[in-house]
Amino acid sequence: MIGLGHLRIAWAMLERDWTRVTRLATLTLAAAATLIIFMNVLFLNGTQALLQGAVLLIEVATVWRVARWHAHLSPAAGTEHPG
Known about the structure:
The chain has about 80 residues and is an all-alpha fold. The protein has helices spanning about 1-15, 20-40, 45-80. Helix content is about 85%, strand content about 0%. It is elongated and about 50 Å long. It starts with a helix and ends in a 5-residue tail after the last helix.
């Protein structure tokens, strides 16, 4: 499920749909957090899940930064009209 979330985030980034990227990243992060919590409750080895959660947290922070950067550049790019 987390891998599918990564794929959908990448696809939405290619389409530059930043609201969908942010929503998908948040949902994927919530799924990873839920997985980590349940693995710890069941006393399973959660090392791999913690690593995935940390990587996902870095990814979400990067996506958030790119979305803000794109929003900052979009108004300037939208003022030019071809022809």
